[in-house]
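Run: sequence + S-adenosylmethionine -> complex structure.
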Amino acid sequence: MLDRAKERFGDGPKVELRDHDLRVPLPDARAAKVVVSGLAIHHLEDHRKRELFGEVHGLLAPGGVFANLDLVRSASARLHERFRCEIGRVEDDPTDRLAGLDEQMAWLREVGFAEVDCHFKWLEMALVVAVKAQPPPHEE
Ligand SMILES: C[S@@+](CC[C@H](N)C(=O)[O-])C[C@H]1O[C@@H](n2cnc3c(N)ncnc32)[C@H](O)[C@@H]1O
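>> structure
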């Protein structure tokens, strides 16, 4: 994926590519307005997902947005089977560590996100968007 990103963005001054294992804490960075993740966090153990959500919250500026499109656990074995069928996968990926949508949204709230919502869901694929609170406007 990093090679593809390099091809797409080159060495432009606005882009810095970093190779980072999400199992370890995020490196320091400037306050971000947006953090996006696509189909990666479901590979982490649940305790690390929750920690990572806290680190993302810490990284965001007030009003910043975290958008995570990822796989979530099905409500039943039958629905899991259906999802696998729909995407044409014969076997489970042994590196998947699927957590429920509800529990992940609860973790996002617990680490401090003010507005947490699921904007799209199809079987095991869900887009969750979490917004960091803005401080209230200063009163004179
Ligand atoms: C299903 S692919 C998705 C790739 C891409 N993000 C996309 O949406 O098409 C899962 C990605 O998660 C990455 N990944 C898995 N475990 C990771 C980890 N511990 N740290 C960083 N990336 C990880 C893999 O390298 C792979 O690129």
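>> summary
The beta strands are 32-38, 60-71, 115-122, 125-131. Residues 11 and 124 are 35 Å apart (CA to CA).
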